[in-house]
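Data card: per-record layout.
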Amino acid sequence: MVNRITELFGIKYPIIQAGMIWNSGWRLASAASNSGILGLIGAGSMYPEILRDHIQKCKKATSHPFGVNVPMLYPNIEEIMNIIVEEGVKIVFTSAGNPKTWTSWLQDKGIIVVHVVSSLKFALKSQDVGVDAVVAEGFEAGGHNGRDETTTLTLIPMVKEHLKIPLIAAGGIATGQAMMAAMVLGADGVQVGSRFVASEESSAHEAFKKIVVDAKEGDTQLTLKELAPVRLIKNKFYNEIQDLYKTLPSVEDLKSLLGRARAKRGMFEGDLDDGELEIGQISGLIHDIKPVAQIVEDMITEFNLAKTTVERISI
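The structure for this 315-residue chain is written out next.
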């Protein structure tokens, strides 16, 4: 399967394992890369030296390309970028910030840069500053999300209509059929997050993985738009947010309830009551915890079956 994404990253299949906070350590990233897709280490949950350790372990665990996802809203961003360069990482996905800030700096050092967006406006801004590819993420996705609530089904063709560089679809993609649908709509590849949370190699707590597997339709909701929109599983913490909204809270009231380290408590430490449990709507279609290699194999099998079906219908 050769296209613009496989050629850009030097991978076998046009699938990217999303660099998710508290879920995407070196074990997940290396397993993904060893399975023929692009693995990403999620730097958002790591202090700089912890990130360095994960990069070094990932280099020992795979000889295939891997990258680092960097949310640009953290205060130690410069130190993180310097570590990425020092450790010889060749692919960086940036998010949660202005791509202009780091794109040329990274590219000057031979690094491929991809930026994650949730709208056509920011996809075009990313293209204008010279990124190598764009991830367009629909509102179905877990974690931090777009304020406009544009779904993947509508976002991908709107972005494709104007974008000249490679386009990666994200949000609500966990099967080969969804991958095929995204590519029919114009994507060159897909980024998959939630399905890899429920993998054996994910660094998520086993209790969090189980609640993802047990999730049903409607068990997630986008909330906290006043701070940064985030899709969460409905739990005790989520219900406290909704109760607070009934009092017409200020931004400071919301920040006070959110506090610190909620995501770590929920996804990494397994506090299912008071933790922040970030996952996508597609969790309702995830029913088991599998090795990464099996997830990738299943997706490719499903993709090829869907491709055959589409070809037969089009005759």
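Known properties of this structure: The chain has 14 helices and eleven strands. The chain has a mean pLDDT of 94.

See the next section for split statistics.
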